[in-house]
Amino acid sequence: MEKTKQTSPSVENVFDGNRFIRACLRRSVDRTPVWFLRQAGRYMQEYRDVRKHHTLVEICKQPELAAEVTITAAEKLGVDAAIIFADLLLPLEPMGLDFEFQAGEGPVVHHPVRTAEDVRRLRTDRADQLTYVAGAIQKVAAHFRDRLGIIGFCGAPYTLASYMIEGGGSRNYIETKRLMYSDPAAWRLLLDKIVTVLEQYCRQQVQGGADVIQIFDSWVGSLSRADYRDYAFEASKRLVRAAQAMGVPVIYFGVETAGLLGDMASSGADVIGLDWRQPLDEGWRAVGHTHAVQGNLDPITLFAPLEILEQRVKDILRAAAGRPGHIFNLGHGIVPGTPVEHVQAVVRMVRDFRLGDSNA
Fold first, then answer.
1. Could you write out the three-class secondary structure of 268-325?
2. Residue 356 above 70 pLDDT?
């Protein structure tokens, strides 16, 4: 059965005792909740041990393994939310695009989408092949019950379209923008197909027990504001509203998005993720205080001496000024080689912070 989102503070519901969910909805909390983008990954020995025997995609497709990796990271760090271990590109496979992760190169899509005919061939009727992610979420939710927020996620339409077209990572997004500009009808059809699949995928995750859906628009910072409005915004808004209709809050996150924050907030997402390139209070003003925000420590600060790291953490918490709706996080994902003990230290710093303390 799907959850029903109830936003009145006077109504007793399953979200009332969870500080992460309360923060997503801009309700009062006893302290700032904290979790980390890419909190399960290669920087953690337990994950590297699993990867000795399984590829990334194999872990994603085996609910027991995906749940184990998710749970281990969340418990080791002591965070307030667990994001399911999965990959943005998983929906490509049921749409008819094979991909693999090549050492040193990241994801590679073997037959990129470059023409209108390529777009027409993409399928939207096999989203049920992704239910292994919901299966992993179900196991994580059963393990944590209501102790932690459970986050499901997907890529945003623009970002997934870019992966499909470029065939992998890109610096300039030439092929993506070539199709976008030269064949708007094919571009719109591509985004429509992606949203159709992602709506089904998000529904599976919510039904599996996800409390929140995070939408990653990792590459949207490659767009000008005009191009975001003309070519990406409506598809993202449609996906945000569809997920919210399933009864859960939505976090919408992108990188290098300082100039897009107001437009991203217009999608109606409950929470806007901020990267580290501007102070949190400036980003929040751009978003508008009717939205919650998530962020925004530079992930490389996790390599700094603890006294510098603590100062940066406190700077962010002071900038939030105790306003309801702040979720402490990084401005992007944890990178390989990050000292685990520094990530754990940040959790303690956030947990112990009190705005009124003289030494804060």
1. CCCEEECCCCCCHHHHHHHHCCCCEEEEEECHHHHHCCHHHHHHHHHHHHHHHCCCCC
2. no
Q: Which amino acid is at 9?
A: P
For residue 148, count other CB atoms closer than 10 A to its CB. Answer: 25
Give the Cα separation of 198 and 152 in Å (integer). 12
Judging by DSSP bridges, how do beta strands 106-109 and 149-155 pair with one another? Answer: unpaired
Query: CA angle at residue 61 from 141 to 341, to 5 degrees?
Result: 60
**Contact yes or no for 216/155 (Cβ under 8 A):** yes
pLDDT of amino acid 272: 98
pLDDT digits (tens, 9 = 90+) for 292-316: 999 999 999 999 999 999 999 999 9
Q: Which residues are tagged catalytic?
A: 38, 42, 51, 87, 163
Q: Cα 39–23–67 angle (5° rounding)?
A: 35
How many angstroms separate the CA atoms of 315 and 84, rounded?
A: 29
Q: Give mean pLDDT, residues 248-263.
A: 97
Sheet containing strand 326-330, edge to edge, reads 81-83, 149-155, 212-217, 250-254, 271-273, 292-297, 326-330
Q: What 8-state DSSP symbol labels residue 334?
A: P
- φ and ψ at residue 290, rounded to 5 degrees: -80, 0
Rounded CA gap, 169 and 333, in Å?
16
Q: Is the pTM of this model over 0.85?
A: yes
Q: How far apart are CA 151 and CA 53, in angstroms?
A: 26
What integer pLDDT is reported at residue 172 of this predicted model?
95
Is pLDDT above 60 for 14? no
Under the banding of pLDDT at 50, 70 and 90, the label for residue 357 is low
Note the Cα 345 to chain centre separation in Å: 22
